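INFO  loader      accepted 1 record
INFO  loader      residues=235
INFO  predictor   begin
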Amino acid sequence: MQLASFYEQAEKPEEAEAVLKQAIAVRPDSENLRLQLGLLYMKQKRFDPAIAQFEAAIHGGTQNPVAYYHAGKALVEQDRGAQALPFLERIIQGESLPGKYYFLLGRAYHQAGRLDDALKQFRLTVKKDPGNALAYNRMGEVYWDMKSYFFADVAFQQAYEVDNASVPILNNLISSSMLMKHYEEAIEYCDRLLEIDPDNPNARQWRIAAERFLKTEKKEETPAVEGGGFNPSSE
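INFO  predictor   done
INFO  writer      dumping tokens
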């Protein structure tokens, strides 16, 4: 394990992987070796082999929450939230853990379509970590999926107050502002997005549309704006 750690610190992941595999061949029942290899795979975003190592540790009887948490995280990162829930629900109970646990469980519930449960976990996240802009943003996306657009917009604004340089948050704010016909706000958010990403074609198109709708609105002709063309996304 120490040699593998040395290779990791030296940014030699292939050597670290080889050493850990050799060690596991000798000690296949070693929880620590499997967790270390699984975490190495997580750093490389090699989620399936990571899951295999965490599951092996779990089947070996480990009670270490690291195995359950990262098995769940590897599945969530692959948009397999329903499969992640048995791992995450096992270790995430009550309100005694850091915010990142509830955030991950909220993502899993959202992916599984359990929107009320997802909201509960994101609320717990911001209760633990009021500066978590991603949690507010995800909360807004859940409200959006519930068609509660007013509350979605409020959550996106809370996210923006914490992080005004996040492209996903700005995308969501533009979407909600357009849907709610808050065209001046939409233009402001488009301008902010273009400051961050000057070549963003969507921001330019949204800005043109918002200006056109605002001009029409000022002529006392209210346009019909469909929400389907503006979909929140954390991509």
